[in-house]
Amino acid sequence: MSCYFWERSQKDDVQPNKLVSTHTLLWKNSVSAKCLFMKRALPLFAIVFVGFLTISTTLIISTTITLNPSESVLPAATSFAKRLLIFGLCMSMLPLGQFFGSPIIGGLSDRYGRKKILIIMLACITICYAFVGAAVDHKRIYIFQFFLFLAGLFEGCVVLSQSVVADISKGKARNEGFGLIIAMKSAGYIFGPTLAVILSDKNLVSWFYYSTPYYVFSCLFLLLMFWMIFGFTETLDPKKRKVTSLLQNFANLKYFFIDKKLRASFGINFILYLGLYGFYRVLPAYLTDIYNVSTVQLGYIYTYWAALQMLSSTIILKYYSKRYPPETLYRICSIVFAFIIMLMVFIRVYSIFWLLLIFLSVSMIITMTVSQTIVSKRTSEKTQGRSLGINMSIQFLCQVLSSIGGNILAVIWVGLPLTICASFIAISGLISLKMWRKEALITEK
To answer: What is the reported pLDDT for 444?
Structure first.
């Protein structure tokens, strides 16, 4: 039987004793709270989505303008080895900027407020991507790399957007907010490669070129800036603002070494991320060399791959995470992930490659997600933010190292970096098997 309470109306034209269902009111309050949350968080989700559009689009554009001789902005006489090195530098610029920018932007937002810093960063990104597009038009590869680095520096606001979601939500709503952020990231990876293909296709529009996506990004970030100015309210209470050193978040990296509970997990994740991001960033060079894929084909491959990742993160991961502890998933999926990479290297059949991407996506997403869960599980609520921040910094650093190092190794043999990446991933799984088994024995005693 439903529970009811008596509500006395404040209006004369309403009956003084009106029977109102508690469940109905709770439902209305819940819907109202969700609508308010979405209204405040929507521009933040848009920033995350566009930010990850730029990352996935740059992967396709950088591959084409450096590795494809017929479309490259480099001189025709440039050797493939030099093209690989330049491609590696292009791929490292955005994460290198994010590695340095995210901690500083986080410190500035704690001091001056979220809204003001987000607006300034969006204005700077708008200018940067206009220069990135101009560099492609004028075939100035080093200027292209420089402004990609600056764009990455200011795109620390994408990481900041995730912090702002935490400011405006609590409990279950916060989990749902982070879930939507992951969905925006996945959507960015899905649509980015397709966007790169469409906006650079001269057959569709005569003036489209590889610079066009960057001019579009510049316009999108400009629109986001105005949205923040007129449609977003500050989320950080002035009383909670704190003046800390802008380099404090860099100083927190020392806990990578001195936190006894987490340094082993950080170390294993460092090895894993070197292999994982190395594979992601070297794969375009491998596909270009082995299968001679075009820009359109590469865009379709990464769109298909991103869609598989989104499916894995929303359905398959949820299924297995309810049935197995994260440590078990980590060591099994990391070994499977490494094995599939080796199959891709030595079974050079294009149709089989598309099939292997299905199994690779599942093992990669599960391994990647539980690597963060394991860090979160081993830290207290008080140090949760610091620990996850260090883990994010490790990811940025590994993206930089693997982009440069992987393409240097590809000069020797294009399959070598993928083989080494698979080895790193397998090693992380084997170490975790020994470490967490020992940890379990200690706990039992």
So the answer is: 41
* Domain 257-445, CATH: 1.20.1250.20
Per-residue model confidence as pLDDT tens digits over 372-408: 778 877 776 566 666 777 777 888 889 999 988 998 8
Token couple for 402: 């693997």
**257-445 has the same fold as 41-246:** yes
Q: What is the mean pLDDT of residues 197-209?
A: 89
Q: What angle do CA 104, 122, 237 make, to 5 degrees?
A: 60
Segment 284-289 shows an average pLDDT of: 90
List CB contacts of 187: < 8 A, sequence separation 6 or more.
49, 52, 310
User: What distances in angstroms separate CA 141 from CA 79, 98, 110, 197, 298, one per listed residue?
Assistant: 15, 20, 36, 20, 21
Domain boundaries, the chain: 41-246, 257-445
CA distance 38 to 408: 45
The model's pLDDT over 102-124, given as tens digits with 9 standing for 90+, comes to 777 777 777 777 788 889 999 99
Q: What is the pTM of this model?
A: 0.80
As assigned by CATH, the class of the 41-246 domain is: mainly alpha
Q: What is the mean pLDDT of residues 185-189?
A: 82
Average pLDDT, whole number, for the chain?
81
How sure is the predictor about 368, in pLDDT bands with cuts at 50, 70 and 90? confident
Please list, residue by residue across 367-403, b when 16 or more beta carbons sit within 10 angstroms of its beta carbon and e when fewer do: bbbbbbebbeeebeeebeebbebbbbbbbbbbbbbbb
Q: Which among 51, 277, 244, 236 is positioned nearest to 155, based on CA atoms? A: 51
